[in-house]
Amino acid sequence: MKKSIFMMLILGSLFLLLVSACGLLQDPEEASAPIEATPLEVATEEVEPAPTAEVVETETAETEAESAPAGIRIFTISQADSEVRFELDEDLRGQRITVVGITDQVAGEIGVDPNDLSSAQVGVMRINARTMMTDNSFRNRAIQNEILRTGEFEFITFTPTAIQGLPESAAAGERGSFTVEGELTIRDITQPVTFTVEAVADSENRISGTATAVIQRADFNLNIPSVPNVANVEEEVELYIDFVAVAE
């Protein structure tokens, strides 16, 4: 009996050493600072040479009553009103559950010309992976220390490369759908990903919407540590960005 208890203590100690060594008991690194948006570099068309003084005087009377185009306005993601989350299913203690990880530490900018919605631009989206939390502290440590390695790679980024399906115009309050193609970087791996976006102009100074995408864990080497009571973790990971962006 004493020998059995002794062996159990040894095995328990070995297990604790094992999970500690692989980061499951170590506190993850905290966010280095509040997240900030990467400034959007607005793409503009080439400007034609300025007209001569004579041409200016001739055209002034014709254009005096006309207002200049509004041009691109910059809308900045509001962390207070936005969140990023991932969802995937797993077996936990024999029960199928949906794991949800959430953070409000998302930053980015959107450029919109009210007179030409089809020219809209989306800047780099940044997410602080160190702040991504589920409902389980043990799982949080596994995700941050082992899967995302947030001590080394604090941020997840999405760099847009193309926008498809934007309308030329939309009435206030009218919801529109389009896609944003780009490069998603998780840790040191970058893969092409397309987000489907539904957005609406709530007012002239506020845009809201949701962007969704599905990625495969294998594409980013998101390997699940072998731990007791967890099995059959889903390969597909659903990504959601619920955003509100405001202009000054």
Strand content: 35-45%
Number of separate strands = 13
- The oligomeric state is single chain
Let me know the largest β-sheet: 13 strands, antiparallel
Radius of gyration equals: 25 Å
Roughly what is the average pLDDT, rounded to an integer? Answer: 85
CATH superfamily: Lipid/polyisoprenoid-binding, YceI-like
What is the overall shape?
elongated
The topology string of helices and strands comes to HHEEEEEEEHEEEEEE
CATH architecture: Beta Barrel
- The first-to-last residue Cα distance is 73 Å
The number of distinct structural domains comes to: 1
Helix segment count?
3
CATH topology: Lipocalin
How helical, in percent, are the residues?
10-25%
Q: Low-confidence parts lasting 5 or more residues at pLDDT below 50?
A: 8-22, 55-69
Highest-level CATH class: Mainly Beta
What does this structure look like?
The chain is an alpha+beta fold and 248 residues long. 17% of the residues lie in helices and 39% in strands. The radius of gyration is 25 Å and the shape is elongated. It starts with a helix and ends with a strand.
